[in-house]
Amino acid sequence: MSQSAVDVAHPVDLAAVKSIRSGRLHSAERVPRVGLFLFDCSDVVPLRETLERIPESVWEWLEEVVVVLEPPHDGDWINPADLSPSPERRVLVHRLPRKSGFGGARKAAFEQALQAGLTHIVVMRGDGSHSPESLPLLLEAIHVDPHRVVTASRFSGRSAAARTGMPPMRWFVHRIAAGIVNRILGLRLADYDTSYRLYSCRALQRVPFQLNGNTRSFDLQILIQLRALGVPVQEVEVRPAWREFVAGSTGVNHGLRSCCHAIDYRLHQLHLTRRGRYFVDQDVKYTLKLSSTGSHMQVVDAIESGSHVLDLGCSQGLLARPLLEKDVRVTGVDIGQAHHLADELEAYHQRDLDRPIELPVGREFDYVVISDVIEHLRNRRQLLRGARRYLKEGGRLIISTPNVALWFYRLSLLVGRFEYGPRGVLDETHVHLYTRATFRREVEAAGYRVVVERVTALPFEVVFRSTGRSRLISSVSRLYHGLARLWPELFAYQVILEAEITTLDEESTAS
């Protein structure tokens, strides 16, 4: 299984940090606009001390410094002007209209940061327990990668924790809980409970953080969302002096809940549960699956070397690279503009597949591939008939689609659940769903004769973020694939048909 990127920061190069502020940033990025939001600010004395301890170099980065207060507004005594260390260093006070809880207060802060157009938000406690002197460690990550998320870890080592007076049992419980969660999620974080963090606002825009809980579980849930999004998480080692929980039993209970949240996410990936909070906004929706039991590699394996392929609905040209290794030439067709396409495509034509296909080519292709496309279209029969015009005599159509009669969706309907999402069989962009029988009938009605049928296993490599070549995942996939071949109507995740045309008509676009 692959693991998400988790790094440990090196000592801060403040010269590099200042060079970023002066404008020498990554070419595609703006000068960062950072907001510092402080929570747990019920006492003015430690709050003032926290603000005064912020290093001089950090103030150059801060676009806004906001003190977040929850009702009852014990902080009504706070005068923002009295908190500002100097006139040019303005401190704002944001009073929440109602008691929102740990997670609710952070949701409000994230919303304010996004509305203000900030590029990054740092969340920390204003009661003095979070060290402001560690802020440069978090901010350095913007120089390394502006899109990563940074957490301040208190549990880098037992000896460091012991020097600060951390009880051995508390250190042990936290490390055990973190180890279990790491194992479940495929991460390598030492401290999931720390609330001292820096977030990229770009990442926050792409996760539904408002659907997270209002308790301390919010911090773990947002890390799981970021993992689902593929955002790197970096840990920096800081002075491990503060406690996130006031009672020992609270920390143990939270550790157990953390394990349950991690398991719940894995169940969501397996479609055994469906959680709206884990439907994140991926920039690239479709990726090449390398598993031999998946549709992509089975399509590639079905195409003979030296062939000429017309890929209808090619997306970015995902199949072009593995096919080029077989000396196969690929012409792609899709509705998108010719941006971010694979270099391996021989040619590309921008066309709406819901309209009659007219291409400046003739009957010259050995294969027409329509991979996971037909379920997105309204004029499906028109596309299938139109594809016949470009196949050579003896050429073949290779077409695949998901199987809505999969056992999981049968069980879901049994309990009254049928929820669409951003990917999978119930992709929210699908306009027609097929069973094995209705899929074959659709293809045959368009003038084809099915000669080969293949099925796929569940996408275990997607569920477990594997490369598709892990021995464990490959073994599980092969076992499931054998079951799908025995009973495709119930266990096949996708059906792949290889078909020959029954007529060589030149005009075959009529519906």
Largest sheet: 8 strands, mixed
Helix run count: 19
Strand content: 15-25%
Rough outline: elongated
Report the strand count: 15
- Rounded radius of gyration (Å): 27 Å
Q: Are there runs of 5+ residues with pLDDT below 50, and where?
A: 1-29
How much is the average pLDDT? 83
Q: Spatial order of the strands in the main sheet?
A: 1-8-6-7-5-2-3-4
Ends apart, CA distance between termini: 46 Å
Question: Which secondary-structure class do the elements indicate?
Answer: alpha/beta
Helix content: 25-40%
Care to describe what's here?
It is a single chain. The chain is of the alpha/beta class and 511 residues long. The protein has 19 helices and 15 strands. An 8-stranded mixed beta sheet has the order 1-8-6-7-5-2-3-4, sandwiched between helices. A 7-stranded mixed beta sheet has the order 11-10-9-12-13-15-14, with helices on both faces. Helix 4 links the parallel strand 3 and strand 4. Helix 1 crosses helix 6 and helix 10 packs parallel to helix 11. The two termini are 46 Å apart.
